[in-house]
Amino acid sequence: MSIHFLVWLTFLVSVVYIEADALPSGPKVLRSSFSDNTKFQATIKIGISNTRLLRSKSVPENRRSEERGVTGFSIVETIRNAFKSKGIAEKLAKWQEQKIPSTTVFNSLHLDKPGQMLFTKLYFPEWVKYADKLGAKIPKMSAISILTKRYGDDILFSMIKEAKTNPRTNELAVYLEAKQIEHWLTTRKDPYELFHLFNLDDGVRRIFEQPAFTTWAQYVDDLNAKHPEKPTWMYSKLRSYLDDTILVKMIETAKASEKTRVMALKLEQDMARATDIHLNLC
């Protein structure tokens, strides 16, 4: 590593210190230049990348040789982000004490700016922690409440689903997925609407093969446990697509497989209870 690079790196660290000191005291005047680094770090820890590349250097008599060296850009960006994250963490702590609204902090961290997936933005995990800590005292300030209000159930569901496919954002996506389901239970979101949102109406005859069916069935169970006075039946929804003869055949086939047996038995029990209640009402 050349002396010029070391001097340049030292200068950059000094600049980053200045940037950290210059962070605003309030969210409305935040002026940090935010990085486009897309690394997800659910625990907000910073690690220096060991990415290496081949580079050539000049030697006497026009002879060139290749050596492996640490990518300067990667180190620089990591150092900048480390200092910025530290500065932002301090500001978030102060804003937490002042109970600055989660929506204000969301905008101040430039999370509202287009051009990059929300889940890959550097400060999104920190904002989620901030919002949920504030939301513990003020529910409408929780991350899922703010995100639902901003994007709506359908778009947010799609965002979470996509983020789950990225190893860097999977952990946070799974966390918010659970929070979204909790939010739906609290607001009593219609399970039949979720049936469509989960795309379960596409290929109903293969319902037992769809992972989302398990999630939907669990939601129905949880909703019924929370509101037993007005139960929802899985059978009723499936009955709008298939008649009883086909449903019974599907259940019997699914019971023969270890992978689908549990869900088949669950639907069979649901079908029996729904039918009994219907007969009693008649």
From TrEMBL:
Localization per record: Host cell; Secreted
GO cellular component, one term: host cell
InterPro entries cross-referenced by the UniProt entry: PexRD54_WY
TM segment ranges: none
This protein's UniProt keywords: Secreted, Signal, Virulence
The keyword NAD belongs to this UniProt entry's keyword annotation: no
All copies of domain RxLR effector PexRD54 WY, residue ranges: 180-220
Signal peptide: 1-20
Family the entry assigns: Belongs to the RxLR effector family.
Name by which UniProt lists this protein: RxLR effector protein
Species in which this protein is naturally found: Phytophthora megakarya
